[in-house]
Amino acid sequence: MQGDIVNETYLKDIVISFLLAGRDTVASASTSLFWLLAENPRVAERIRDEANEVLGQNQELTSCEQLRDLHYLQACVYESMRLYPPIQFDSKFCLEDDFLPDGTFVKKGTRVTYHPYAMGRMEELWGVDCLEFKPERWINKDGVFSQENPYKYPVFQAGVRVCLGKEMALVELKSMALSFLRRFNVELAHPSHHIPRFSPGLTASLRGGLPVFVREIKNTT
Fold this sequence. Notes:
By secondary structure, the chain is an alpha+beta fold.
């Protein structure tokens, strides 16, 4: 009986950790995604076209299998987080003396910080168009989403430290964005003045929020 209580408490702790860890990060990723889509309406239109091809005109999403077939939508989500990762920098502490892949010695107890925000904007990693929102960079010649090395794109961390909620977060982001974009257009309220500025904190959040106009798409069929 005691073991059951401990296991139930442990399970509740895991569920709460998932919910809390995913709340602000998914909100941050959603805000950045819609900002970029408002700036790039052709991308939003292509998401709608892909959804119509995969799901059918005006048909609802009904399975995770369908979601996995939306390669361009997946590419948009990844590209958005390349430029605006929900966690802009993170740190790890070295438990034992070790070496980085380039041969740099790291002493036990050393704090090592990496910066996904900066890494996503490095020309040597992403090319001369690294500052452009370009979902096509994630699509191979067959039109299929192609994953980059997670150490190059550490938005969800990598290796044994990979985010446990990664797949759940992607499902949330993609299903929410798809449902919204098939019904509404989003336009920046102040397009000429809005430059993303972030508030201090572990999770990236836009200072002042994201003022937009949301307009229903009229069905003409």
